[in-house]
Amino acid sequence: MKMGTWNGPPLKPYNFDAKGINMANGALHPLMKMRNEMRKILLEMGFEEMPTNNFVESSFWNFDSLFQPQQHPARDAHDTFFLKKPASSTIEVTDYMNLVKKTHSEGGFGSIGWRYDWKQSEAEKPLLRTHTTAISSRMLYQLAQQKQFRPMKYFSIDRVFRNEAIDATHLAEFHQVEGLIADYGLTLGHLIGVISQFFQKIGIQRVSFKPAYNPYTEPSMEIFGWSEERQKWIEVGNSGVFRPEMLLPMGLPPNVQVIAWGLGLERPCMIATKCKDIRELFGPKVDINMVQNFRFVRYDKLKP
Amino acid sequence: MVFWLSLSHNCLWQCVFVWDDNTNTKVIEVQESQLVSRLGYEPLDNEKDQKTFQENFSKLCFEFGIELDEVTSEFDKVAREKGADVAKKLKASTSRLYKIELPERQFFFFFGLFLSKKKKRNFDIDIDIHIYIYVYMKIKKYEYVYFVYGCACVGEKANRYDLLSVEGLTKALRIFQEKEQLPSYQTYSPKDPVVMRVTAATKKIRPYVVCAILRDIEFSEESLQSFIDLQEKLHFNICRKRTLCAIGTHDLDTLAPPFLYDARAPNDIRFIALKEEKEMTAKELFEAYRTRDICSLREYLPIIEHSPVYPIIYDSKGVVLSMPPIINSEHSKITIKTKNVFIESTCTDLTKANIALNILVTAFSEYCKKKFVVEQVKVVFDKNESHDEKNNEPSHYVTPDFNSHVFTTSPSYVNQLLGTTFQVDHIVKLLQRMSLNVRVKENESEAIEVWAPPSRGDILHPVDIVEDVAIAHGYNNLEKRLPEHQTLGSEQPLNALSDKIRDCVALCGFTEVLNWTLISKQESYDFMRIPDLGKAVEVEHPKTHEFQICRTNLLPVLLHNNDDFVFARGEEGRKRRDPTSVSTLHGVLKTLHANIGKCSLPLHLFEVGDIVILDEEKAVKARNERRLCALTCSARQSGFEQIHGLLDRVMQQNSFEFLSQSELKEKHNNRWPCEGKNIYGTRQMYYSIVPSEKLTFFPHRQAAILVDGLVAGYFGVVHPLVLSNFGIYNVNNVMVSAIELNLEPFLSQPQIISFLLQSTHFYQFYDTILICLCHVSINLNVPFTFRAGFLVKKGDKRTANFFLYK
User: Mutate which of A213, A277, A290 to test chain B, going by most B C-beta atoms within 10 A?
Assistant: First the structure.
């Protein structure tokens, strides 16, 4: 400037067809970006986040409280990570536990029960939670302990564990998105309405429901979303109304229904990142370039 | 797939899993023409019709809760496996096959097999996929080989076994479409029924038998095949590979009732087995099956071969009907000309056998002259000593038994759950479409009695009935509603905080990675140069053997030897120091290893995630802790200052003030933590950095981070040995610096503040490993209390003294 060189001969024309210098940038992980968006949507819809920071859970909350019998195959070590250490846990709610025991072994609350010899030792076995519904169960129990029932909406997005051999489509841990609503007089129609609303917000405009089977919900529905790209219905989640055998022992009023749905976070993310191998998305084999170049997750763009 | 299970006292179990993919018994295949005619459509002439039919059928399946898997043909199947040429040569049929998948559960597992010799409970759990397991066991020179049993995956209520045959499936669909009424299945008991006598000897092996007769039946080639297929499917599913029950079907006209069900020594049994040419004893037969190259029956042999007596069924002339659960006799085999079919099902589980029998006879009673009528058979048990009054076992019964449990429900209950306004009549109609028997209770129009036909055994509770109403109405026809009550959304404070920290670190130029919680012990301890103090959560029988433990504590060893700074918070602080080792760092290092050649340096990576540590105080004996881990990887420079800068940035953003080492000492020597207020008007929060000596990091280029006087993390230049353990070699003079930090101290302002008790001379003198800890705990609202504790380890003797001041 001082030398006045700017006043000299004109600069060589700049090549605007070349790209600028790569900026040194930080980036958030695609899966977490997607989680953030879903969290935001659920918060907008009036859902309260559940405290899910406990990967270790007792069989009682993970299975028994959900009216899943102790001989249920889901409870076999082949699918669930049981723990060598800690070897046992304590069940802190004796009265409720006894009611659960009774509902399993003798029935009650309008149910004939599973009719077997319920064992506390089995319920005390600790495990890595297989679904975040274990937390939902804890939250619903707490809700039932309040003097006055208050309608609630809960959600969580966190890790769950399955004892799987890992391959391109399976991991031993993945993220589960779960939403549930506890209110007077909820119906299957409400569940369909809420799910449709939620999926619309994440860009799936058309959803359709297929009869399915879940151990702790009745009726149960598989959720299918219409994929414009692939011109077909693809499974996007699972849902249902919690069974009375699960809710009534907790002490929830009989006219309160709880509707819930869940979906995996990895699958929509794999579609968005066009990732064929889940290990390249989640885990140490992730491609840093992919993480850095992953675009905005913009569900707002998709609004009709 | 092979894996090892090691158990105590030197016995090794090797389990060999043979996964049989071909026996997916939840898929049934139907010829298109058969399907079309059975569902009552006009034959399809052109491709357009076919396409429309396929679309309609697929939609129907969806509504009904089953899935049209694919439309294929024999030709396609052969072509796929062996190539199109072979298919052409074989002249495989090109007629279209519909593969239909029945509802099933997603889980699969093994079922109480390994060590349990106890009698398995009769649970209402049924099997979908079958796994054959052989266990080889070696205990003190002796080898044992066990066949544990082809056990299986499960559909617990996915037991619409009535849909396993073309007959049952199309009938259910026709009823669903209201093209047909649910038939009224009836049993018929003649004055002088056929009798099956059961001897006491059978108690030793398969104690029960149930029987039925289908009279004046007319088979076609298709229906005979379907009859045999259904038996096989039932064997696979509900009969658990014939272990619970095994069905045998016979041409009644070749036999002379009454029948005798006995158990005899293998050498005393002689007959011509199905598809055999000559007469053989049971022993010879077993030998023959065992030595043949291909023998589908081999897998069933272990069910009875250990027994001194084998089950066997004779007629009154001593002709063998069958040797369950292995094989029928050639003599009584059913053919297309068979008019009267005698069905026997021997079993260990009477309930399951009855269900299987009911499904078989109800599906095929439509081919009888008297449609849907099944003749009953009387089963009489011989008396024996064990068969006294005490046990409630019946001395005789008549099968099949079509009585089923009646459930009562009401329209208001249905409407309340579905949000509908259905009238009684409409509900009745809907339930009838789901193949259920319905009756409106007399005088009481608000009560509906529902009972399942013998072909369905999956209704357990009135809720199940409501679901069937919803399915028949169509889930997608229900009116969409939204909950009326307003609720407030809110975040978990910990998640909100960690999101803020993630943003902060990413804005510093770091790229987020995401790693698994489960890791191997080797990576966690050996690679990080940390001793295993056994504080991690360990999993049992992982399928992927690198998954042994949940990632544990902060970077390298918060403690293990001589920490000369212990600003611990009493019990909690001690615990936090206890657990060993690594954390999120090893995962980030692994990610670095996978990317180091692919990305340009320097690389800045970070992860915010949970680690799991044992905690006796929690009900589940473990807890999570939120951690931040970040590293920089650059050539020719350590990046140590950058990591230090990141730490300062995170602290600054969290309103933590820096306190130098001398200030820290001063503060603690004065036995009083700083009292100043920060901008939020709360107690001032501070952090300090003191040198540390961890093997994971390079000497003198590492430090511990103290938050409010407590160790909350470490940072430093990662030791070259650690790098090479993770396969990050020092090719380009790559250097890595890393930080690991517990985020939970940031969460709430700490209620308790602790300080250091100068104790250096203490261990120098006594050569102690564990240190004295002392803390002041302050609850801001409550008059303050002072507690101090000494924990001293001296040789093997451990003494602990606690003082409490108030």
Answer: A213
